[in-house]
Amino acid sequence: MGLELVEASDLFVDGDEVFVRTTKGPRRVSVIYRRTDDAFLDPEFFRPDSLIGVPGLMRAYAAGKVALANAPGNGVADDKAIYAFVPDLIRFYLGEEPILKQVSTYVCAKREDRQYVIEHLHELVVKAVDEAGGYGMLMGPQSTAAERDDFRQRILADPRRYIAQPRIELSTCPTWIAERRCIEPRRVDLRPFVLTSRTGSWVLPGGLTRVALRAGSYVVNSSQGGGSKDTWVQAGHAEMA
After folding, report:
1. Chain-centre distance of CA 226, in angstroms?
2. Is 33 helix (H, G, I), strand (E, B) or coil?
3. Model confidence over 15-55: pLDDT tens digits?
4. Of 58, 59, 69, 49, nearest in space to 3 by CA
5. What is the pLDDT of residues 132-183, one digit of tens each?
6. Domain 10-73: which CATH number of 3.30.830.10, 3.40.50.11290, 1.10.150.130, 3.20.20.450
7. pTM, rounded to two decimals
8. Class of the 79-167 domain?
9. How many Cβ atoms sit within 10 Å of the Cβ of residue 86?
């Protein structure tokens, strides 16, 4: 993507402008694609004990001197319970029908959905709406009776915190397994990156291919033992190395 990968200590704010430290001296930064959680983004504005934020960053952002991709507060869109309402949001705000279908999603805060989930835990993938990285999840078809009982109690105690979806069968890709020195199939998914401007939206020529390195696993998150594969687009087709 042609971006420099930096840590908070590489950046500083001076006069409401953000700069990056380089071997040739400070250089002005106009756009930051940030991965730091809101609470730790700027110790002057959010948590004062944050050691991974940039002091003054929110001041520069408010002054319009730097743009933050993944703007503070947009995490509400990452609440998994919102996913179920996206088609309705499209219809309400755009007056259009969704072009792409999405996975059926049961919101446990709804009584009918909750009852269905409780009765079909062995068929569904249950996810905590406020978790990420594969945490707070039950893979129903691969779960034990004890694990399902545990999640049944969690859902009943705090239904707003959970959604459930049918398990989607992921494609597999030949993967080198170093400990056995052989190639075996492992499940993968592809995360494309879509950019939007005043003139429209477009997909970048590439993406993030994640692979579940554990045999039989459907969880591709790196925090759960997953990995990644090189991804590029050639002649209109996505290919993985």
Report:
1. 14
2. strand
3. 999 999 999 999 999 999 998 889 999 999 999 999 999 99
4. 69
5. 777 889 999 999 999 999 999 999 999 999 999 999 999 999 999 888 899 9
6. 3.40.50.11290
7. 0.73
8. alpha beta
9. 14
